[in-house]
Amino acid sequence: LKESNYWKNNKDKHDKKYPFERAENTVREIRRITTFEDNKTFLDKFRTLITEIGNALGYIRMIRTASLNRCSQAINYVPNLGKIQKFSEMAEKDELPEETQTAAKNLDNTLNALSTNFSRDQDFFRLLVDVFEGVLTTDDQKHLKVFYTIIPPLTINFVEHMLVGRDILATKKNAANAFISDDGFAIGLAYILRLLHQNQKFESLRWFQGLKEKYAEDHARVLAETERSRRNRSGETNLRTNENLSLRKIAQYQEEFELLSFCFDAAKIFFEEF
Description:
Layout: H1 2-10, H2 20-33, H3 42-74, H4 87-93, H5 98-119, H6 124-136, H7 151-171, H8 184-196, H9 199-203, H10 207-231, H11 236-268
Helix pairs in contact: 2-7, 3-5, 3-7, 3-8, 4-5, 6-8, 7-11, 8-11, 10-11
Protein backbone atom coordinates (compact mmCIF):
# COMPACT_ATOMS: atom_id res chain seq x y z
CA LEU A 1 0.00 0.00 0.00
CA LYS A 2 2.90 2.32 0.79
CA GLU A 3 4.46 1.76 -2.64
CA SER A 4 1.10 2.19 -4.35
CA ASN A 5 0.57 5.58 -2.70
CA TYR A 6 4.13 6.63 -3.47
CA TRP A 7 3.71 5.76 -7.14
CA LYS A 8 0.41 7.65 -7.44
CA ASN A 9 1.97 10.78 -5.95
CA ASN A 10 5.37 10.66 -7.67
CA LYS A 11 5.00 8.93 -11.05
CA ASP A 12 5.24 12.21 -12.98
CA LYS A 13 8.45 13.00 -11.13
CA HIS A 14 10.00 9.78 -12.48
CA ASP A 15 8.74 10.23 -16.06
CA LYS A 16 6.08 7.59 -15.31
CA LYS A 17 8.72 4.87 -14.95
CA TYR A 18 8.98 3.08 -11.62
CA PRO A 19 12.47 3.92 -10.26
CA PHE A 20 14.96 1.07 -9.99
CA GLU A 21 16.42 2.59 -6.83
CA ARG A 22 13.04 2.35 -5.13
CA ALA A 23 12.67 -1.33 -5.96
CA GLU A 24 16.28 -2.07 -4.98
CA ASN A 25 15.75 -0.37 -1.63
CA THR A 26 12.65 -2.52 -1.03
CA VAL A 27 14.72 -5.64 -1.67
CA ARG A 28 17.31 -4.51 0.87
CA GLU A 29 14.71 -3.63 3.49
CA ILE A 30 12.93 -6.98 3.15
CA ARG A 31 16.26 -8.80 3.33
CA ARG A 32 17.10 -6.91 6.52
CA ILE A 33 13.84 -7.59 8.39
CA THR A 34 12.70 -11.01 7.12
CA THR A 35 15.37 -13.69 6.91
CA PHE A 36 14.32 -17.27 7.69
CA GLU A 37 16.38 -20.08 9.13
CA ASP A 38 17.39 -21.28 5.66
CA ASN A 39 18.72 -17.77 4.85
CA LYS A 40 15.76 -17.18 2.54
CA THR A 41 13.94 -13.86 2.59
CA PHE A 42 10.26 -13.13 2.17
CA LEU A 43 10.92 -12.27 -1.48
CA ASP A 44 12.71 -15.60 -1.97
CA LYS A 45 9.71 -17.47 -0.56
CA PHE A 46 7.27 -15.41 -2.61
CA ARG A 47 9.28 -15.89 -5.81
CA THR A 48 9.44 -19.63 -5.18
CA LEU A 49 5.67 -19.79 -4.68
CA ILE A 50 5.00 -17.92 -7.92
CA THR A 51 7.47 -20.16 -9.74
CA GLU A 52 5.77 -23.31 -8.45
CA ILE A 53 2.40 -22.00 -9.67
CA GLY A 54 3.93 -21.35 -13.08
CA ASN A 55 5.57 -24.77 -13.18
CA ALA A 56 2.21 -26.41 -12.38
CA LEU A 57 0.59 -24.51 -15.26
CA GLY A 58 3.41 -25.58 -17.56
CA TYR A 59 2.97 -29.20 -16.49
CA ILE A 60 -0.76 -29.06 -17.25
CA ARG A 61 -0.07 -27.65 -20.69
CA MET A 62 2.57 -30.32 -21.34
CA ILE A 63 0.15 -33.13 -20.42
CA ARG A 64 -2.56 -31.63 -22.64
CA THR A 65 -0.13 -31.36 -25.55
CA ALA A 66 1.01 -34.96 -25.07
CA SER A 67 -2.62 -36.11 -25.01
CA LEU A 68 -3.39 -34.32 -28.29
CA ASN A 69 -0.26 -35.79 -29.85
CA ARG A 70 -1.26 -39.32 -28.80
CA CYS A 71 -4.79 -38.86 -30.14
CA SER A 72 -3.53 -37.47 -33.44
CA GLN A 73 -1.35 -40.53 -33.95
CA ALA A 74 -4.18 -42.95 -33.23
CA ILE A 75 -6.75 -41.03 -35.28
CA ASN A 76 -4.61 -41.36 -38.44
CA TYR A 77 -6.30 -44.70 -39.09
CA VAL A 78 -9.75 -43.11 -39.32
CA PRO A 79 -10.36 -41.95 -42.91
CA ASN A 80 -13.06 -39.36 -42.16
CA LEU A 81 -13.58 -37.87 -38.71
CA GLY A 82 -16.70 -36.05 -39.82
CA LYS A 83 -18.44 -39.25 -40.89
CA ILE A 84 -17.62 -42.22 -38.70
CA GLN A 85 -19.88 -45.17 -39.36
CA LYS A 86 -21.44 -47.16 -36.51
CA PHE A 87 -19.94 -50.63 -36.78
CA SER A 88 -22.23 -51.97 -34.06
CA GLU A 89 -25.32 -51.04 -36.10
CA MET A 90 -23.93 -52.71 -39.21
CA ALA A 91 -23.00 -55.84 -37.27
CA GLU A 92 -26.47 -56.00 -35.71
CA LYS A 93 -28.16 -55.43 -39.09
CA ASP A 94 -26.23 -58.27 -40.72
CA GLU A 95 -27.01 -60.52 -37.72
CA LEU A 96 -23.37 -61.27 -37.08
CA PRO A 97 -22.36 -63.43 -34.09
CA GLU A 98 -22.69 -61.89 -30.61
CA GLU A 99 -18.92 -61.79 -30.15
CA THR A 100 -18.56 -59.78 -33.35
CA GLN A 101 -21.29 -57.35 -32.28
CA THR A 102 -19.55 -56.84 -28.94
CA ALA A 103 -16.26 -56.16 -30.72
CA ALA A 104 -18.03 -53.67 -33.00
CA LYS A 105 -19.45 -51.82 -29.99
CA ASN A 106 -15.98 -51.63 -28.42
CA LEU A 107 -14.60 -50.24 -31.68
CA ASP A 108 -17.37 -47.62 -31.78
CA ASN A 109 -16.57 -46.56 -28.22
CA THR A 110 -12.86 -46.28 -29.02
CA LEU A 111 -13.46 -44.22 -32.16
CA ASN A 112 -15.90 -41.97 -30.31
CA ALA A 113 -13.38 -41.35 -27.52
CA LEU A 114 -10.59 -40.56 -29.97
CA SER A 115 -12.79 -38.22 -31.97
CA THR A 116 -14.06 -36.40 -28.88
CA ASN A 117 -10.64 -35.97 -27.28
CA PHE A 118 -9.05 -34.83 -30.54
CA SER A 119 -11.67 -32.26 -31.48
CA ARG A 120 -12.59 -31.01 -28.00
CA ASP A 121 -11.32 -27.49 -27.54
CA GLN A 122 -10.91 -27.58 -23.79
CA ASP A 123 -8.67 -24.78 -22.54
CA PHE A 124 -7.42 -25.80 -19.10
CA PHE A 125 -5.90 -22.37 -18.52
CA ARG A 126 -9.35 -20.83 -18.94
CA LEU A 127 -10.75 -23.29 -16.41
CA LEU A 128 -8.02 -22.42 -13.90
CA VAL A 129 -8.67 -18.72 -14.36
CA ASP A 130 -12.44 -19.17 -13.93
CA VAL A 131 -11.97 -21.26 -10.77
CA PHE A 132 -9.50 -19.02 -8.93
CA GLU A 133 -10.43 -15.62 -10.27
CA GLY A 134 -13.20 -15.12 -7.75
CA VAL A 135 -11.11 -16.44 -4.88
CA LEU A 136 -8.33 -13.86 -5.15
CA THR A 137 -10.61 -10.85 -5.65
CA THR A 138 -12.71 -11.23 -2.50
CA ASP A 139 -12.67 -8.83 0.45
CA ASP A 140 -10.49 -11.31 2.37
CA GLN A 141 -7.71 -10.74 -0.18
CA LYS A 142 -7.71 -6.93 -0.20
CA HIS A 143 -3.94 -6.83 0.18
CA LEU A 144 -3.62 -8.31 -3.31
CA LYS A 145 -5.14 -5.18 -4.85
CA VAL A 146 -1.64 -3.69 -4.88
CA PHE A 147 0.14 -6.90 -5.89
CA TYR A 148 1.57 -5.21 -8.99
CA THR A 149 3.73 -2.91 -6.84
CA ILE A 150 5.77 -5.84 -5.46
CA ILE A 151 6.67 -7.08 -8.96
CA PRO A 152 9.70 -4.78 -9.48
CA PRO A 153 11.43 -6.04 -6.29
CA LEU A 154 10.41 -9.58 -7.19
CA THR A 155 12.04 -9.33 -10.62
CA ILE A 156 15.26 -8.04 -9.07
CA ASN A 157 15.20 -10.99 -6.67
CA PHE A 158 14.55 -13.34 -9.59
CA VAL A 159 17.44 -11.98 -11.67
CA GLU A 160 19.83 -12.27 -8.72
CA HIS A 161 18.59 -15.84 -8.23
CA MET A 162 19.25 -16.63 -11.89
CA LEU A 163 22.77 -15.19 -11.79
CA VAL A 164 23.60 -17.28 -8.72
CA GLY A 165 22.41 -20.42 -10.52
CA ARG A 166 24.48 -19.59 -13.59
CA ASP A 167 27.57 -18.91 -11.46
CA ILE A 168 27.20 -22.27 -9.73
CA LEU A 169 26.96 -23.94 -13.12
CA ALA A 170 30.07 -22.13 -14.37
CA THR A 171 32.19 -23.00 -11.32
CA LYS A 172 30.89 -26.61 -11.23
CA LYS A 173 30.66 -26.44 -7.45
CA ASN A 174 27.49 -27.56 -5.67
CA ALA A 175 26.20 -28.57 -9.10
CA ALA A 176 22.96 -29.94 -7.64
CA ASN A 177 21.75 -26.35 -7.15
CA ALA A 178 22.81 -25.14 -10.62
CA PHE A 179 20.35 -24.23 -13.36
CA ILE A 180 20.20 -22.21 -16.57
CA SER A 181 16.50 -21.32 -16.83
CA ASP A 182 13.41 -20.94 -14.68
CA ASP A 183 10.43 -20.08 -16.89
CA GLY A 184 7.89 -20.94 -14.20
CA PHE A 185 8.28 -17.52 -12.57
CA ALA A 186 7.18 -15.60 -15.68
CA ILE A 187 4.21 -17.90 -16.28
CA GLY A 188 3.11 -17.72 -12.65
CA LEU A 189 3.43 -13.93 -12.69
CA ALA A 190 1.32 -13.62 -15.84
CA TYR A 191 -1.32 -15.94 -14.37
CA ILE A 192 -1.65 -14.05 -11.09
CA LEU A 193 -1.83 -10.68 -12.84
CA ARG A 194 -4.62 -12.06 -15.01
CA LEU A 195 -6.53 -13.36 -11.97
CA LEU A 196 -6.26 -9.97 -10.28
CA HIS A 197 -6.95 -7.93 -13.44
CA GLN A 198 -3.77 -5.94 -12.86
CA ASN A 199 -1.99 -6.20 -16.20
CA GLN A 200 -2.70 -2.58 -17.08
CA LYS A 201 -1.66 -1.39 -13.64
CA PHE A 202 1.66 -3.19 -13.93
CA GLU A 203 2.17 -1.87 -17.46
CA SER A 204 1.63 1.64 -16.09
CA LEU A 205 4.87 1.22 -14.10
CA ARG A 206 6.78 0.90 -17.40
CA TRP A 207 9.20 -1.21 -15.42
CA PHE A 208 11.03 -3.06 -18.17
CA GLN A 209 11.32 0.05 -20.32
CA GLY A 210 12.82 1.93 -17.39
CA LEU A 211 15.31 -0.90 -16.82
CA LYS A 212 16.45 -0.78 -20.43
CA GLU A 213 17.15 2.95 -20.14
CA LYS A 214 18.82 2.56 -16.75
CA TYR A 215 21.37 -0.01 -17.94
CA ALA A 216 22.06 1.98 -21.11
CA GLU A 217 22.83 4.97 -18.89
CA ASP A 218 24.96 2.85 -16.56
CA HIS A 219 26.96 1.56 -19.53
CA ALA A 220 27.58 5.09 -20.83
CA ARG A 221 28.48 6.32 -17.33
CA VAL A 222 31.14 3.63 -16.81
CA LEU A 223 32.74 4.43 -20.17
CA ALA A 224 32.71 8.17 -19.40
CA GLU A 225 34.22 7.73 -15.93
CA THR A 226 36.95 5.46 -17.28
CA GLU A 227 37.77 7.96 -20.01
CA ARG A 228 38.08 10.80 -17.49
CA SER A 229 40.39 8.69 -15.33
CA ARG A 230 42.55 7.80 -18.33
CA ARG A 231 43.05 11.46 -19.10
CA ASN A 232 44.44 11.84 -15.59
CA ARG A 233 46.81 8.96 -16.41
CA SER A 234 46.06 7.05 -13.25
CA GLY A 235 46.55 3.25 -13.27
CA GLU A 236 45.84 2.30 -16.90
CA THR A 237 45.78 -1.46 -16.21
CA ASN A 238 43.53 -1.19 -13.16
CA LEU A 239 41.20 1.14 -15.01
CA ARG A 240 40.77 -1.32 -17.85
CA THR A 241 40.16 -4.19 -15.42
CA ASN A 242 37.58 -2.24 -13.43
CA GLU A 243 35.89 -1.10 -16.62
CA ASN A 244 35.61 -4.65 -17.93
CA LEU A 245 34.21 -5.92 -14.63
CA SER A 246 31.64 -3.12 -14.41
CA LEU A 247 30.53 -3.51 -18.03
CA ARG A 248 30.28 -7.28 -17.62
CA LYS A 249 28.07 -6.91 -14.56
CA ILE A 250 25.82 -4.40 -16.33
CA ALA A 251 25.56 -6.68 -19.38
CA GLN A 252 24.67 -9.70 -17.22
CA TYR A 253 21.85 -7.90 -15.43
CA GLN A 254 20.59 -6.30 -18.63
CA GLU A 255 20.51 -9.65 -20.42
CA GLU A 256 18.66 -11.40 -17.57
CA PHE A 257 16.04 -8.66 -17.34
CA GLU A 258 15.54 -8.75 -21.12
CA LEU A 259 15.10 -12.54 -21.08
CA LEU A 260 12.59 -12.22 -18.24
CA SER A 261 10.73 -9.51 -20.15
CA PHE A 262 10.53 -11.65 -23.30
CA CYS A 263 9.39 -14.70 -21.34
CA PHE A 264 6.79 -12.66 -19.44
CA ASP A 265 5.36 -11.19 -22.67
CA ALA A 266 5.13 -14.68 -24.15
CA ALA A 267 3.44 -16.06 -21.02
CA LYS A 268 0.77 -13.36 -21.12
CA ILE A 269 -0.40 -14.72 -24.49
CA PHE A 270 -1.76 -17.80 -22.69
CA PHE A 271 -4.28 -15.63 -20.84
CA GLU A 272 -5.06 -12.82 -23.28
CA GLU A 273 -8.18 -14.33 -24.84
CA PHE A 274 -10.19 -14.51 -21.61
